Amino acid sequence: MARLLVLVEGQTEEGFVKEVLRDYLLAKGFHPVSARIVGNARLRQRRGGIRPWQSVRRDIVTHLKQDPDCLVTTMVDFYALPRGENGGWPGRDTARGSAQEKAAHVEAAVFADVALQMGGTYHAHRFVPFIVMHEFEALLFSDCEAFSAGIYQPQLAGDFQTIRNEFKTPEDINDSPLTAPSKRIEKLVPGYEKPFLGILGILSIGLDQIRSECPRFDSWLRALEKAAA
Q1: Interval 103-125: pLDDT, tens
Q2: 215-228 and 99-118 are packed helices; what angle lies between their axes, rounded to 10 degrees?
Q3: Is residue 197 within a helix (H) or strand (E), and if so which, with residue range?
Q4: Which of 12, 34, 136, 210 is 20 to 30 A from residue 150's alpha carbon, by CA?
């Protein structure tokens, strides 16, 4: 069985892997499945936030080189990915088009950069990059009724659904500082606690519903299932 390491950007994604994805992926053939916040995770007071690409790449390459039986994947948000020459993620500055096209562009650039660092003996299937469009909270719009019930705010189901209805998929909910998925939720739920309420919402919705509503998320899990086979 292959080991799987999921490099995440913050506590919400870390909790999602541990509370939701781990058992599912163990059943698909991975053992063990672990999550790690990229960068210096020892500094607990500074956890979260997307690290510069050089820091994340170092984590990825180190794990791939040190553990030849390990597969590495990422779960980081497109929203607020570092840009520019100093720490920017590959492909971020040149990502254009639909949400699907932007994410695929960054993933391809990240994949190529890791392959370059690993060299000729590297088996490319061991790294599966995944960029969440536009951020983790978009997944919560996969079932607005279940989400609102899961966070004990059933009266907000209609408000969440109104937002969801504006977009083809939850993954298309846009990423401006005012209209990113988390900003929309925070406007309706003052004091929204991302790690706690986000996981409650996901558990209420369930993986099957998220996969049916979010094609990029579904493609990621399919890729991991294939790698585990």
Answers
A1: 999 999 999 999 999 987 889 89
A2: 30
A3: helix 194-205
A4: 34
Task: Read off the pLDDT of residues 148-163 as tens digits, 9 standing for 90 and up.
Answer: 999 999 999 999 999 9
Q: Say which residue the tokens 């170092």 belong to.
A: 58
Q: Which burial class, exposed, middle or buried, applies to 219 when counting CB atoms under 10 A from its CB (0-12, 13-18, 19+)?
A: middle
Neighbours of 156 (CB within 10 A): 18
CA atoms within 13 A on the CB side of 76: 28
Query: Rg of the chain over CA atoms, in angstroms?
Result: 17
Task: Please provide residue 207's backbone torsions phi and psi, each rounded to the nearest 5 degrees.
Answer: -65, -40
- Residue 54's H or E segment, with its range, is helix 53-66
Give 171's DSSP letter.
G
Give me the amino acid identity at 171.
E
Q: Is 176 exposed, middle or buried (0-12, 13-18, 19+ CB in 10 A)?
A: exposed
Helix (H, G, I), strand (E, B) or coil at 131: strand
Contact 96, 151 (CB under 8 A): no
